[in-house]
Amino acid sequence: NNSNEGQTIRGLAFGDENWQHQRYTHRRFPHLTTPPESVSLGRMTRAHHEPRVTVVGTYLDPLGRTPDALLNGGWRDFGRVAAAARRHGAEVTIVQAAWEDAERDIGGVPCFFVRERRRLLERVQASRPDVIHHEGLVHPGAVRRLAEAFRDVPVMAQDHGTTCPRGWRRWWCRWGFARLAGVAFTARAQAEPFVA
pTM score, two decimals? Predict the structure, then answer.
């Protein structure tokens, strides 16, 4: 019945530890519980901890501002969504490309500003993420390297009003973003140019 289906889906989404319930879910909804080969959904759904989300930003401020200048108004709302997710039970870490190294706290969320690409990946690894949230549909090469470095962790991206590229740049984006587990858009109309 419908109430069982709702419970099953909620159990899957929130990591219900009832294994009989998990087996029932797999029989009834195999498309929801059979993970893609490269993603460890089992680790995410049966974890004995709150979900660990690492927010990764590879966009480097073109004005070369310090982390403190960015946090004091340079980037409006930076880290606020991560802090809200933390208040609702997620364990969140922010790793952001920057012109200088710094560690800050944003509403209880540790934020690491990192200068070097290699060290950015090391910092992401140190956070032991269950899921990686990449900020923006920018830097296809960096997104692909991130997804390849963490093959057993789903990487999703959130669009921030990116204009869909044309010509060879469109191919470059398709290649770079091919390994993403998902992309979030504010409205369906924003997604349509990317899937056309």
Answer: 0.73
